[in-house]
């Protein structure tokens, strides 16, 4: 009888120690609770980290205006002038004679197009910080290479045009390099607030070459470009379009950032 009882107790240890079942249940409960906590934590990250898709989409659109044509230009230059004769005739023939500058500028612009907009994805920044950091490096390097190669292209294809348009290009190039470099310095110092501000300014400076496209459309809609005033406006836009875009973009960005800083104060958040 004792042997049977002993064997049964060995098979069912919870019969020997009544606390065994409670401890086991508690352990399973804690494990389930931890699992649920991790799952809830992951879910809460996605809830509190919106994708900011409107800004990301807008940046893809704006940067894509020059970047998408750059894809075709780079492809045509790499293929050569005789590969697709009809398409090759649509771009500057000198691109095939002196391809280095256009290839560097085009490739860096394409890399910038794919890397920069994702920097403003809040969800990617929180859930994939390493990817955010790597893409940020690509964006900064490609932006600076793209800006400097833009000056290089001007000197290669328009060496005699060193007037107001060239000076505007140089000023925008310097502004791009300084703003992106400043953003990286603040990121290395872990000053995320200042990093975000300077990245926003850097994007505004870079888009100074895109803004004139919209200014030209607006100008043609409201002013007769063949009239004396229209010809003067077109001439000014041609020479100073990048500087005008630079000033307008920075003005808009600074106003928006100032409003965002005031909102928490109005809501009583310090």
Fold and architecture overview:
By secondary structure, this protein is an all-alpha fold. The protein has 13 helices and no strands. It has helices at 2-11, 13-16, 18-48, 53-79, 85-88, 94-97, 99-115, 122-127, 129-157, 164-188, 192-206, 211-222, 228-266. The chain is globular. 83% of the residues lie in helices and 0% in strands. The relative contact order is 0.07. Mean pLDDT is 83; it is low at 1-16, 18-34 and 37-49.
Distance, first to last CA = 76 Å
Q: How much strand content do the residues show?
A: under 5%
Class from secondary-structure proportions: mainly alpha
**What's the number of extended β-strand segments?**
0
As a whole number of angstroms, the C-alpha radius of gyration is 30 Å
Poorly predicted segments: 1-16, 18-34, 37-49
Assembly form of the protein: single chain
Largest sheet, in brief, is: none
Which descriptor suits the 3D outline? globular
What is the succession of H and E elements? HHHHHHHHHHHHH
Keywords summarizing the entry:
270 residues; disordered N terminus; mainly alpha; single chain
Please summarize what this structure is.
With 270 residues, the chain is mainly alpha-helical. The protein is built from 13 helices and no strands.
């Amino acid at each position: 009888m004792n042997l049977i009882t002993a064997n049964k107790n060995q098979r069912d240890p919870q019969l020997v120690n009544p606390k065994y079942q409670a401890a086991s249940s508690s352990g399973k409960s804690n494990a389930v609770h931890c699992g649920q906590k991790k799952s809830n934590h992951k879910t809460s990250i996605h809830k509190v980290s919106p994708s900011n898709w409107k800004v990301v989409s807008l940046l893809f659109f704006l940067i894509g205006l020059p970047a998408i044509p750059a894809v075709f230009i780079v492809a045509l230059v790499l293929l050569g002038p005789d590969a697709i004769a009809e398409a090759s005739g649509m771009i500057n023939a000198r691109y095939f004679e002196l391809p280095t500058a256009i290839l560097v500028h085009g490739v860096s612009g394409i890399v910038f197009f794919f890397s920069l907009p994702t920097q403003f994805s809040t969800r990617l920044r929180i859930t994939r910080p390493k990817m955010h950091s790597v893409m940020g490096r690509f964006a900064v390097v490609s932006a600076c290479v793209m800006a400097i190669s833009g000056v290089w292209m001007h000197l290669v294809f328009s060496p005699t045009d060193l007037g107001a348009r060239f000076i505007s290009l140089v000023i925008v190039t310097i502004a791009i390099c300084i703003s992106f470099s400043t953003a990286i310095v603040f990121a290395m110092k872990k000053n995320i607030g200042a990093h975000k501000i300077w990245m926003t300014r850097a994007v505004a400076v870079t888009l100074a070459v895109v803004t004139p496209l919209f200014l030209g459309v607006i100008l043609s809609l409201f002013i007769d470009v063949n009239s004396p005033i229209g010809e003067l406006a077109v001439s000014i836009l041609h020479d100073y379009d990048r500087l005008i875009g630079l000033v307008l973009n920075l003005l808009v960005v600074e106003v928006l950032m100032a409003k965002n800083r005031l909102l928490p104060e109005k809501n009583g958040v310090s």
